[in-house]
Design a protein that fits this description.
about 65% helix; mainly alpha; elongated
Length: about 70
């Protein structure tokens, strides 16, 4: 029988998910030339990440001029 996940494994999985989300934001922002509000709309529609979780990633958009 397989043991339940330890706290260490949960933390590693969380870090991996944060890394994946950050990479997706980079792809959308850089390759699609999307603005920050477009990216948040995309994440709202296609993921279940909350606004607080997204904000906790500390993702900044330096050239996002409207």
């Amino acid at each position: 029988m397989r043991a339940t996940k330890t706290t260490k494994h949960i933390k590693i999985d969380t870090l991996r998910m944060k890394d994946i989300i950050s990479q997706l934001v980079d792809i959308i922002y850089l390759l699609c030339n999307a603005k920050e509000n477009n990216i948040t709309i995309i994440f709202d529609q296609f993921t279940n990440i909350t606004e607080e979780e997204f904000d906790s990633l500390n993702i900044f958009f330096p050239h996002d001029n409207d």
